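pasting for ref
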Amino acid sequence: MPVDPQAQLILDLMVELSPFNDLGDDHRPIRALMEAGSGTDDEPFPMHAVEDHTVPGPAGDIAVRVYWPEPSMTDAPGVVYFHGGGWVVCSLETHDAVCRKMAARTGAVFVSVDYRLAPEHRFPAAPDDCFAATQWVAANGARWGIDTTCLAVAGDSAGGNLAAIAAVRARDAGLDLAAQLLVYPCTDLDPSRWPSMTENADGYFLTRDAMEWFYERYVTDADRTNPEAAPIHAPDLANVAPAFVLTAEFDPLRDEGRAYADRLRDAGVATEDTCYPGMIHGFFNMDDAIDLAKTAQNDAASFLTSAFGRATASSG
């Protein structure tokens, strides 16, 4: 099908304003542009409480933002969320709105993680920070009202990559997660392997050239097949957390996300995946402009609440 008309309106606006129009050697202009264009709303989606905290990490304290959608939350499910941005851009601020809305839709306490960014901090800084935060929440989340037997990881794009890696690390560490939510995840660092990287290389917001720009700042060539950078290369995915993988029809990352879902299923992991027709990369966060984004958020919330229900039943 063609690009969804609402998504096309976004693309038309991006002709002159896309952060990927002028990718130079300096990452700072695109970082500033993403912050300016996607910051916290003047009237943010209401939460009972939102607080900034820090948790210990391998290179010092990691900033996190905690969202409570309801008052007096105790024994609530928890979601540790990793923002997208190619491991180079974006922050707690750029993903504040989606964390608020997903916390409200799920009734879960969300913990958004401000992991270290490349190129100042190249691989494996990001996955190390994300898993350290996940482990800390699993051990200490009760102080924030989280039932740590109902803990999930989630993320979009590069954050989906980090959530997938955190789920594998959790399995290996004996940490039993309830779910992993992977929103158009980057699972490979070799664009030559995926038809969608060619079919959707340009003209749909995220470009193949932009992905190469991100890879070059995040990893060395030797690390491109490291499973902790590219989880599609993990030798064994058995017994990782149940997964929901969301992809978009006109996204360069579409095929590697779907392939990762297939690998999870082949390993015996309960896995749902949906490719949203007519959609572009980033649509999940565009619910103010794209109706199907609301559908995708509801689908993701339904998956998480079902997974939390199963975790509660099994722990009881």
